[in-house]
Every structure is written in structure tokens, then in C-alpha cells.
């Protein structure tokens, strides 16, 4: 039960971090491209990649992986918002932007996670 509470608290911290970071990035972006969501997803993937790389190369760390990975990174990142923003862009007639955003989100998040894993797995 203690682990579940820790995951919940970390998730709340991640959600607040997402709110603040997403807002800060979007405030600097004049267009409708969802740069804030892209930023939090890439950052969260990088953090989770670092964490996974560390856990893969060290004994222990499973509790930290659960709390930080499931909790904080789960609260920080958002696939549902990214999906909604893609649909919103498409509904506004910006099909190319919607598809580009989705592909950039997938590829950049994957690359960030891979970089994190490789950086700390050695």
C-alpha cells in the first residue's frame, strides 16, 4: 500500500509539472501546433529511458522505477492529450500538421527513451 501511495504522489507531482511546463511552452508558441504536449512527452520519455537504463545496469532500483516511471513520468506524459490535439488539428483542416505532430511525437519520444536507456545502461 505504501508503494501505491508513493506512485500516486509522484503522479500528482508529474501532472503538476506537465501543467506548468506545457503552459510555459505553449505561452511562447503563437501557433496552434501543440509544442507543450510534444515537450512533456519527449522529456518524460527521456527521463523514463534514463531510469530504465539505470535499472538495467544496476541491481535494485525497481521501486524507484515504479515510483518515478509509473508515477512521475505517467503524470508528466500524456498520450491521450496528444491524440486529442491531433484530432483537433485534423478537424480544423490541418491534416498535414496533425499527422506530422503524431509522427514527430512517436519518433522523438522513442528516440528520447532509447537515448536515455543507452546513456545509462553501460
Explain what you see.
Helix 1 runs parallel beside helix 3 (62-76) and helix 2 (35-57) runs parallel beside helix 5. The model has no long low-confidence stretch (mean pLDDT 94). The chain has helices at residues 2-27, 35-57, 62-76, 79-91, 95-121. It has five helices and no strands. The protein is mainly α and 122 residues long. The chain starts with a helix and ends with a helix. 85% of the residues lie in helices and 0% in strands.
Jot down its keywords:
0% strand; 122 residues; mainly alpha
Short description:
Helices cover 85% and strands 0% of the residues. It contains 5 helices and no strands.
Helix content: over 70%
- Low-pLDDT windows of residues: none
Mean pLDDT: 94
- Ends apart, CA distance between termini: 33 Å
Radius of gyration: 16 Å
> In one word, what is the shape?
globular
Which series of helices and strands comes N to C? HHHHH
Structural class: mainly alpha
Strand content: under 5%
How many helices? 5
Largest sheet: none
Tally the beta strands.
Answer: 0
Oligomer: single chain
